[in-house]
């Protein structure tokens, strides 16, 4: 991954990439890797660090979408469970099995969540991470000592995935480069090139040297997440916004908050959210909120 040798690929005037990908987060890097391993020529440009935005600020979970099962979106859950299993198989150094406990305080919650999570396990087929089981209050308290004991009727244990999001992304970068992709950060797409009214490439600026280069492409993919409208404005200035950013907040607490290697999942809080408390590097990540924002920020507060 030598920057100079990768940049040199951009100065071939006759080169037309099959794909140019704008954005070096999880989606963009996944697209670049997929394209390169299928034999296409691809260049990816990220204006800052790889995974600068959402892709390094997740809840660190590779989950099969328990909440979508409750919403009846079976196809999405099945796809997510398959992807979770494949990630665990392909990157076991970055993806691991994480045990979760749902504490139950109403008589019907134990049977209800157990049935749903057993179905969840069955949908994973051969890629399941472990069986879900319903346990009594005493075992639930032994599993996570800091849970409220009063009124607990049961607990439900289930398995999901946990991963290091930014490390996985860097592995995607390296694998894409090994497959022949031109992947560069601190390369800012400043305009779109057009021929006969159709996008034919991009103009990029090297943020380290200030050099500007025009790149020809058969297809340009906008993978900039909450900043997608910035690119769309380059295409058609004045376009109505298509993305409304929302901000999630994670609290980082001391490990003594749980006193356990098991995570907690609350399916529905008083304000209707799903809440996780997950062990992470000798701390506990608690989240998340979901607050609509007027605009996206590269350094959210």
Give your account of this protein's structure.
By secondary structure, the protein is an alpha/beta fold. It has two domains: 3-55 and 166-235, FAD/NAD(P)-binding domain, CATH 3.50.50.60; 96-162 and 245-292, D-Amino Acid Oxidase, Chain A, domain 2. The protein has eight helices and 18 strands. The strands form four sheets. Strands 4, 5, 6, 7, 14, 15, 16 and 17 form an eight-stranded mixed β-sheet that branches. β15 (263-266) and β16 form a beta hairpin. The two termini are 32 Å apart.
Task: Compute the number of helices.
Answer: 8
Low-confidence segments, given as residue ranges, are none
The helix-and-strand class reads: alpha/beta
Distance between the termini: 32 Å
Q: Please bin the fraction of helical residues.
A: 25-40%
Write down how many β-strands occur, each being a DSSP E stretch of 2 or more residues.
18
CATH homologous superfamily caption of the largest domain: FAD/NAD(P)-binding domain
Q: What is the N-to-C succession of helices and strands?
A: HEEHEEHHEHEHEHEEEEEHEEEEEE
The gross shape turns out to be elongated
CATH fold annotation of the largest domain? FAD/NAD(P)-binding domain
Just name the CATH architecture of the largest domain. Answer: 3-Layer(bba) Sandwich
CATH class of the largest domain: Alpha Beta
Instruction: Count structural domains.
Output: 2
If you average the pLDDT, what whole number results?
Answer: 94
Strand content: 25-35%
Main sheet overview? 8 strands, mixed
Question: Could you tell me the radius of gyration in angstroms?
Answer: 22 Å
């Amino acid at each position: 991954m030598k920057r100079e040798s990768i940049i040199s690929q951009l100065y071939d005037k006759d080169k037309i990439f099959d794909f140019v990908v704008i954005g070096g987060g999880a989606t963009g890097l996944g697209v670049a890797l997929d394209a390169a391993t299928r034999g296409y020529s691809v260049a990816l440009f990220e204006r800052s660090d790889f995974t600068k935005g959402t892709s390094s600020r997740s809840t660190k979970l590779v989950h099969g979408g328990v909440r979508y099962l409750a919403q009846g979106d079976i196809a999405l859950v099945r796809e997510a469970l398959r992807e979770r299993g494949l990630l665990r198989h392909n990157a076991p150094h970055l993806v691991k099995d994480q045990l979760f406990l749902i504490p139950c305080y109403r008589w019907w919650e134990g049977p209800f969540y157990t049935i749903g999570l057993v179905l969840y396990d069955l949908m994973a087929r051969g890629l399941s991470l472990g069986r879900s089981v319903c346990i009594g209050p005493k075992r639930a308290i032994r599993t996570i000592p800091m849970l409220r004991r009063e009124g607990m009727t049961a607990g439900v244990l289930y398995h999901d995935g946990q991963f290091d999001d930014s490390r996985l992304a860097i592995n995607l970068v390296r694998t894409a480069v090994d497959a022949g992709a031109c992947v560069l950060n601190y390369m800012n797409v400043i305009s779109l090139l057009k021929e006969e009214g159709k996008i034919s490439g991009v103009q990029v600026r090297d943020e380290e040297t200030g050099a500007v280069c025009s790149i020809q492409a058969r297809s340009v993919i906008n993978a900039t997440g909450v900043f997608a409208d910035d690119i769309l404005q380059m295409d058609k200035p004045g376009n109505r916004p298509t993305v409304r950013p929302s901000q999630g907040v994670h609290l980082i607490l001391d490990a003594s908050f749980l006193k356990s290697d098991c995570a907690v999942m609350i399916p529905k809080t008083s304000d209707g959210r799903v809440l996780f408390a997950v062990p992470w590097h000798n701390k506990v990540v608690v989240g998340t909120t979901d607050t609509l924002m007027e605009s996206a920020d590269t350094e959210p507060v």
